Write the structure tokens for this entry.
Amino acid sequence: MKVNSILALIMFIFSMVSQAVQAGDEPRVYHNTLTPLKNPQPLLADHPEFVEPIEELGRYEAPLLVDDEGADLSVRAWRFSYNSRGIIEMPNRISIKNTAVIMVHPWGIDDGQGWKTPEPAGAADFCTPEKNHLAGRHTREVIDPFLKRMRKSNALIMFSLIGKVDPIRKKLYRTFDYNPTPAERAEARKELTRQLKSLPYRGKPLPAQIALSKEQPVIDYFRQFSGLSAGDHFNGKGFWDVPVPVTQDVTVHNNDVLIFDREGYAPLKAFLKKQGIRHILLTGYATDMCFCKTTAGYENLSQDFNVFLVGDATLATFPANSSPRYATNAHISFASLNHLITQVSWIKPISSD
């Protein structure tokens, strides 16, 4: 390396440290000491029906990572490193007042509110009514109890949904800049029901005949009959134009906040910063798509916040399987290369004793 390059690197490091000190956030030295764990239990093993437990040959304990002054919440977490040849676990001590719990895409479909999978071949959310019902049960049994517990601890609870800001949901849920009155919520609920029930929920059937060329029949077959088509052909016109509500499988309180995907990440980041949020406990669907790539997905949030993926409070889509457990295991495992994973039972209040 040339001398000028070395000097430039030294000056850059000095500049970063100087800025941190001026901002009142003086860096601390983290001793990356990895201690082998003896006979550790499988990870994410509390709900094996929904998530296949994770096992790995190498498991290590690392020192405390996040250490908030006056911390009142313990969040043990882990990540995987090929270079360390195993899973690294570490404790964290965070402040609830600086923590938001976000549930990604709790779509209210096939849950009795009126928005439902179109027949005979429509697709939405987990893409079949049976898979949507399974996800609803996961919401009721795993995510909703967790949100209730965190809400009692005064954590900020948020939900993200598809679409742009619309008059109905603006009056139904608290948003970044408005908290509707009980009367507005009641009227919005009536309007929502009318709109959701106005659709026929009918689309066209599967193709009865497919034109195949002699040279490329496989290409022709999939071009005319893909594995997932969720447009007007199978879902019917107007299906995606309704204001999608939060699922009835999760409890929503008046102070919970709705995130509109179409507004983008910048308003969400600004709102969280204004609320003093530094830590995110991320739950919701689908691990392989919305959970990572939408407005409130971890690819965005991890740029600006300490993000913990709650590995058993999410489900991946699971084509060609009757259970999401293996798909969720795989996608959470891949995310663990660059993100911290926790689980519901690892998130505990710190005793004041």
The first strand starts at residue 35 and ends at 36. DSSP finds ten helices and 13 strands in the chain.
